[in-house]
User: What shape does this take?
Amino acid sequence: MAQNKTGNIAEKALGHDDQNRAATTDISNPARDGGKYADPSGERMKALVWMGKNDVRVLEVPKPRIIDSHDVIVKVTGSTVCGSDVHLMHGVILQTEKGDILGHEFCGVVESVGPAVTKLSPGDRVVNSFCISCGECRYCKEKLPTACEKTNASKLHVKLYGGRLSGIFGYSHFVGGYAGRQAEFVRVPLADNNLMKLPDSVPDEKGLYLSDVLPTSYHAVNHTGVKEGDNVAIWGLGPISFMACYWAKKRGAKRVIGIDNNWRTEYAKAKIPGVETINFELLKGDETVPTKIHEMVPGGVDISIDATGGEYGKGFVHKMELATGMEQDTSEMVNEAIYATRKFGRVGIIADYVGFTNHFNIGALMELGITLVGCGQSPKELLEMVESGEVDPTIKVTHRIRIDDIDKGYKLQEKRAQGWVKCFVEMRFSAKRAEGTPELVRL
Amino acid sequence: MAAQATYAVEKAIGHDPEHIKQDVASYTGKGEGNPAETMKALTWQGKQKVQVVDVPRPKIIEDRDVILKVTGSTVCGSDLHLLHGAIMQMNKGDILGHEFCGIVDQVGPAVKGIEVGKRYVVSFQIACGDCFYCKQKLSSQCEMTNSNTITKAMYGGRTAGIFGYSHLTGGFAGGQAEYVRVPLGDNNLLAIPDDVPDEKALYLSDVLPTAYNAVKDTAVYPGDHVAIFGVGPIGQMVASYALDEGASKVILVDTEPRLSFVSGRWPAEHKDKLQVIDFKKLSFGVTNKETVVSKLKELCGGRGPDVAIECAAGEYAKGWTHWLEMSLGAETDTSEILNEMVEGVRNYGRAGITGVYVGYTNHFNIGSLMQRGIRLIGNGQAPVHKYWEELLDKIRKGTLDPYQMLSHRVRLEDIDKVYYKFDAKEDKMQKVFVETKFSFPRAEGTPELTIY
Assistant: This one.
């Protein structure tokens, strides 16, 4: 928490980097700066707002309006909660400010378009990309939108990382401070490049997950180069890892082993044929995750993928170092992965890691020729697979809730309680529930 | 001394089953050497202490052993880690040295294809040729030549046996001596043709393949901007290979005297591609002052180079935090250069590690790596067998010149003094050729003998 405050102060001192911004950043809530970004009609809407560590609330805030000529205002018909939103709730993401609207995944119907918008019209059904990219810079041209150079003005970010990520919706001023998508209306800058039209044949309950879960899990498997016959181990069994197991199997991986400490191991085995799991709470005596993997796959797996999160310290030492700010991320899962991978194998990190870690096993990495792949945040393109039915994103959807209950949803996501894997959040504008998807529950 | 304590632990825990005889590190054990015939060898005597002493000559112990009469040897930057006591499981009296060439003196009964009296260079790693890794020519990860359990515990796997590099790698007596026992001799010797002098062939044992592996494994593509951290012999050869791969800009990060040495020997036709950064003149950490990272951005269009290759090592702390943590054992390697590489390269760039890192590090910038999609590539101990024939070919064709790193010729008797000079970077020492009483006359175009 203290680090968050210091981050904000540091940014104020270092100054924003506003050159070359392709969109107006840091309007994380239309109410900021005396409400000059709010819709002049004075209309209000519900939104999930960050009010402090472990304090997220559904509040009434002003509706957004068009600010840049390439903006679009979308009426939201579906949203959700991400495992990485839980990092924000815990206050571990730098530069989160009181009043920021959270959420980076949504689908909806276009309500109004700015004068420079050419590909979208009011009434279009759309899904967003969780990252905002300009489409024109060097990285966008290489189809690496999360490395876009023109949508994030945070200077602290550059100082800490040596380079910049693109802007990301609803994910703090560290990545552009754009208002999040867990709301009834959203402003989408550079809309032509950041919204994808959904065909009528794809209901919201499937299309929504093209914003983040599907491309992110796909990218983890793609970027680490999982190929036919490979043995793969995946840490964590949240929605990302779950879908990563799915993609790995689809690519012909021989064995896919998912690792977690709760009922999600059973859920994964039930939903994805052929997946094996390790519940690390049930390991006995000297057994550890890596020794178990070496037992199951002598010599180690070809590829490991970490989809957990830097904030999840397992042992006492790391928990203490995280709490006191000596490190921002634990190295435990990454070390397990390095240890469990065969020599000259690869370890991919798709989970959120944000800063510095201690006790990182660099010796094993160097001596055994391991490649550690920062997956970066991921690019897009899976609509055809969803449309044709080749991929069914709803296999991971366990709950449907209303936006009024989304703050309680965060808590269930955090605790992995009540069989919660991934939810669909409906708004007052939502279409009727698609057949075969979970029924609405009040929390 | 942590180094010797871990050796005691290893003795207590015991080895994994041995496929070839382990821990013949000084030929002084029973049956290991011939005490009636002695020879000179460079031995480890404790932290900051190496000494040339007389030891028994080695003899054939296993059927595939070869005894080599050494005609050329050298000192490696990684030998300095041993001198510093940074590598665990050293024992007083261990013979060092993993780069050597010579004439075969004796062969064991099961050795095929190796002729007594002919010249060979030896690979620094000992490979069996048959296991899962050897079949893929990944000889440095051979499963049959190192039975050490501590490395397996620390790393989840272990490297092949290595000459003269502590009991962590099998405890094999090294080549900074007049004679060496080469286990599995028929798989670890490369014949040296008559038209290649020792002063070139010797470096096929380690430097040339290690630098080549760094470039091939990390990947340098035509047009790339490449930053090289540390320009000792490895870094210098990495630069040379990077130019061969078509790099359009090569940035050397080090300080004097090395920057001048390497710039002085830089090929004239590639002068326009060379940039140097003297890190001693810059700041480091989170600051608005100039740092290695900010300089890299400045030199590469604001984004940073496409590739960075580390040829320095984990024991060289710059700032006092890391120095303190390493002294206290809170970490075994500093993350400073790693962080400079991760932060310095462009988004989705690559950083390769060839310098020796042995254990755990703190304050590693995993956030930058994950968020910006950086690949951190442990190059591993270089699989010599994968590359050495190809590199010998390049030497014979004249497209690879090992002489560019050669700065001194010294005697085996003086090799202990050389260790200290090399460590202090005195005399502009980059890479030495060590002659023994069996050596051939000095090849033309190489440095004359210096006696210390």
